[in-house]
Amino acid sequence: MTAPVAMITGGNRGIGAAMAQALAARGLRLAMGLRRPDSLPPEIAALDPLVMPYDAADRAAARAFVNAVEDRFGRIDALINNAGTGGPLELIPDAPQPDDDMEDALDHLLEINVKAPFRLTRAAMPALCRSGRGRVIVLTSLSGKRLLA
User: What are the backbone dihedrals phi and psi of residue 78, each rounded to the nearest 5 degrees, phi first?
Assistant: First the structure.
């Protein structure tokens, strides 16, 4: 049996990089989807991952990433949706005034943090099901639990 494959978005630093290293240490092969593929640190590059350009704001990126992973490895066993943004909404004052800029910021945040993981999961789902043990992990920040008064 060939080693399982994990797809990771935003795995070039922080939690994503740590997850890539931990998964590789457990024998998984890696496919990294990065907005800037040239930003992969040497310690992750040494793990010999498939590195793909992946811009969560690009609706076609999910299908292209999944296709590349299936072409190279023939399987997908795990998908880690790690790419995300806090965006300008992190800067909302206690009493925000409605304006177009805030709505644009919300649209961007939803596109990256909600729609992109949905699209990527949907594109990878057939391969994840074929693996018989497919897993999907979606990371969020504490902002995912924060309520605005």
Answer: -150, 145
> Please, what's the b/e burial string for 45-60 (b: 16 or more CB within 10 A of its CB; e: otherwise)?
eebebbbbebbbeeee
CA 90, CA 103: separation in Å to the nearest integer? Answer: 13
Q: Report pLDDT digits (tens) over 30-64.
A: 999 999 999 999 999 999 999 999 999 999 999 99
Q: How far apart are the first and last CA of the chain?
A: 53
pTM: 0.85
Q: Are 120 and 62 in contact (CB under 8 A)?
A: yes
Yes or no: say if 128 and 77 are a contact pair by the CB < 8 Å rule. Answer: yes
Residue 149 has what pLDDT? 47
How far is Cα 82 from Cα 98, in angstroms, rounded to an integer? Answer: 30
User: In terms of C-beta distances under 8 Å and separation of at least 24 residues, what long-range contacts does 69-72 make, across chains too?
Assistant: 69/5, 69/7, 69/31, 69/124, 69/127, 70/127, 72/31
Pairing of strands 50-53, 29-34: parallel
Tokens linked to 65: 């990433």
